[in-house]
Amino acid sequence: MQRRFTAPHRTRGGALALCAMAALASPALAAGNENASQPDTDSKNAGREAEIVVHASRLDSSVYDNPLHITVVDERELRERAPRTPAEALRGKSGVWIQRTGHLGGAPIIRGFMGNRVIYLFDGIRRNTAGLFKGPNSFLQNIDALDVDRIELIRGPASVLYGSDAIGGIVNVVTNETPRFTDHLQVGGRSYVRYASVDDALSGRQELHVSGQQFYAFIGGTLRDINDVEGGRGLGTLRPTDWREKNWDLQLDYKIAEGHRLEFFFQDFSRPFGSRYDRPNWKQSNDRELYGLRYAGRDLGPLASVDATIYFHKQDNFIDEKHWDSDGRDRTWGGEIQAKSQIADLLTLVYGFHMHRDTVKKSNPQKKTRDPDVEWTNPAFFVLSQWQLLSRLRLDLGLRWDRFTLKSQAPPVSKLDAAVQDAINNGSFSLRDLELDRTDDALTGGLGLSFDVTDEIRLVGHVGRAFRAPNKSDMLRFGQFTFGFNTPSANLDPESSWTFELGARGDTELFSAGLTGFYTILQDAIVSVPGTFDGKSFIDVNGNGVQDSDEGVFVKKNASGDIVATGVEFDGTFRVPEGWTEMVLGDAALSLYGNFSWIWGKDKGADEPLDRGFPANGLIGLRVDDDRDPERSDWWIAAEAWIVDDFHRIPGTRLAKDPAFRFDPQDKSSGPLRAGGYVPGFTVYNIRGGFNVTDHARVTLGVNNVTNKKYRVKDSRLDAPGTSAILALEVRF
Fold first, then answer.
1. Residue from 688, 617, 703 nearest 98 by CA
2. Are 619 and 90 contacting, i.e. CB atoms less than 8 angstroms apart?
3. How far, in Å, CA of 370 to CA of 184, rounded?
4. Which residues pair with 172 in a beta bridge?
5. Backbone angles phi, psi at 45, to 5 degrees
6. How distant is the alpha carbon of residue 374 from its chain centre?
7. Taking the CA of residue 637 as centre, how many other CA atoms within 13 Å lie in the half-sphere pointing to its CB?
8. d(CA 469, CA 529)
9. What is the pLDDT of residue 5?
10. 426: enclosing H helix or E strand
11. Do the domain assignments include residue 50?
């Protein structure tokens, strides 16, 4: 049955009531619980960055120790910045660019690559499916932003860690609670409410946990009501950009014995209504359910640890457009077992087996047509090692073997799109072109070296190979996208890449910094180019008899030349010595922080710039904490500026057709964003701060885009928000 969208009842009243009641009740509950949890006193921002452990690296190595360039946005930073979405938490980080297809969008571009050239993980579980395409996606938005404990960003080739697609890097969003077993029965929780003025957005979350000697139970729920966003100076309200959301999650942990734990987890994400600014007739719903069972064991004889996970992921996406619908249903069964062994004191090994199976179904209920059903199977073996060769020299080595099997089953001819039926009847296309049965194998690896010049200065280097097997989106997709119409292209070779990195890091009591340079070569890249289908250069979607700007036929092929990307990334923090500021600030701590990114790339086969290059940009900030010891800090305030250069290197096809580069993304006939075809640079100023109301309650205040700057982030299909006041209240009990 065809589904149609109507705006659902507003959740504002429910969210506000939920959070208000919790905020009022929480202090009383906390007062009656002598062991109530205290506010986070994470000292990571004031101490050695070596203490920040990256779980997505599998070896659980620290940011400082890993030869790859890694950023961790921890719980403290997430609460202080109060980002609207997980993607926005990464905005302004070096080496990554966040575009916005719509107000609910936000896809990361890592070192010039995005979409199916980036791996998305939820709690270490692979989110990518066989239907993922190479353009912007909403994966980082289809997760509860108020339930995120940390985000791990790994730049560069990471196929050895998690398989196909990791050419640009990995984004791992961690939501699972760390279980806390207690000697006596304890009850605790968290209430959180966030309001932003620029989109009149109200979001609320309530959490509750119960713990004992052998069990830990956690449940949480979120309601969100996001309205149309106000643009910068002179733009007014950007309509439609509103959306609604309701989510809940559950986690149950049981301590089998000391060092042995069994965990069940569940996530339910529901966005029943979402708008897309550049397509006002487009309404979208997203529903996702994740079920998982995990075992964690420690000190098992020769094995330092064993972690085993099985999961089922259900992802449904429905688009209601004026001339067509899209009903996508992805199902994934997966499992993984990973073991760790410590061989003497010099060698650490992590090894294991991974397996997942996707089934991808897609249909157009409006036209009563179906795509071929796809089954994708991926078994893999991996081994990673850290070997301390000398007292100051460490070698990291990883190897992984994957097998990718894609099988597709075409529906009856009568269920195919009319244009495909015509092509079959004309003999220019065959039903067999939709019946695929192919297998690809890949051996990937990475080699990293870390050399300590002194106790505070380290040199790092890494070379790694990544791989991407062609999926359903590459070979079987038939349908409209932003500026054209995709048609099937079955005979494609896999993509592979090599990335070379060199870097230097320093970490002292006062100063932490890192500088990384990289060079990536992508071979046999799968690219979209204008072509024909059944002898026609366009598919008449709206039936008006002429070719519109988003109806031209595009086909996939392997690029005739390499795609290269090179760049420089810098991050640094300077903690001003106490003696310099004592007369003015007393015991307060002053720190300066910032980063810088520059990237250049080219598609040598097409003689065009790198498709997803982004402008040189940097961030600089100043922060004051009322005490140098985070354990005693009660308030903080920070001011920062994000400075972005003009960007001119835009591929010709995208400059001509992508609404991101039109003056008005909603108007296909509007002229370019700027004469001469470029995206202008900008500088945006933000101020934020926070304070503890009590030992159990904290307030965060902020103003983003203080000067109400009118600007557009490169690759985004709407202008950026104007000035926004943000207020967040968190109560723990």
1. 617
2. no
3. 56
4. 121, 152
5. -75, -10
6. 25
7. 5
8. 19
9. 39
10. helix 418-426
11. no
Query: Which residue in this structure is represented by tokens 């179906």?
Result: 370
The Cα-based distances of 10 to 15, 104, 246, 312 in angstroms read 10, 17, 11, 31
Coil, helix or strand at residue 527: strand
Residue 285 has a pLDDT of 94
Whose CA is closest to 357, among 394, 393, 311?
311
The CATH number that applies at residue 506 is 2.40.170.20
CB–CB of 659/667 below 8 Å? Answer: no
First to last CA, the chain: 47
Task: Tell whether 104 is covered by a domain.
Answer: no
Distance CA 516, CA 459 (A): 10
Q: Write the CB contacts of 676 (distance below 8 Å, at least 6 apart in sequence).
A: 648
Residues 6+ apart with CB under 8 A from 152: 54, 55, 56, 70, 71, 72, 73, 170, 171, 172, 174
- Read off the tokens for 364: 């157009």
Beta strands in 197-236 (DSSP E): 201-211, 215-226, 229-230
Quick one: which of 403, 344, 338 has its CA closest to 163? 403
Count structural domains, the chain.
Answer: 1
**578: containing domain:** 186-732
CB atoms < 10 A from the CB of 546, how many?
8
For residues 136-147, one letter each, b for 16 or more C-beta atoms within 10 angstroms of the residue's C-beta and e for the rest, the string is bbbbbbbbbbbb
Peptide bond into 488 cis (omega under 30): no
Q: Count CA within 13 A, CB hemisphere, residue 605.
A: 17
User: How far is the CA of 561 from the CAs of 48, 98, 124, in angstroms?
Assistant: 43, 27, 34
Within a domain: 113: no
Counting every residue written for the chain, the total comes to 733
Among residues 561, 586, 589, which one has the least CA distance to residue 577? 589
Within a domain: 47: no
**What are the residue ranges of helices labelled H in 526-573?**
none
Note the pTM of the prediction, 2 decimals: 0.91
Q: What residues have CB less than 8 Å from 145, skipping those under 6 apart?
A: 83, 84, 85, 86, 203
Cα distances (Å, whole numbers) of residue 418 to 476, 478, 534, 540, 649:
16, 11, 12, 11, 39
What lies within 8 Å, CB to CB, of 571 at 6+ separation is 71, 94, 513, 514, 594, 595
Cα–Cα distances (Å) from 231 to 245, 282, 412, 665, 720, in that order, read: 22, 20, 48, 13, 6
Return the structure tokens found at 431: 């039903």
Exposure string for 336-375, b = 16+ CB within 10 A, e = fewer: bebbbbeeeeeebbbbbebebbbbbbbbbbbeebbbbbbb
pLDDT of amino acid 178: 87
What is the distance between the alpha carbons of residues 651 and 648, in angstroms, rounded to a whole number?
9
For residue 10, the 8-state DSSP code is P
One-letter amino acid at 282 equals W
Intervals of the chain under pLDDT 70: 1-51
Identity of residue 196: A
3-state secondary structure of 631: helix
**Contact of 710 with 234, CB cutoff 8 Å:** yes
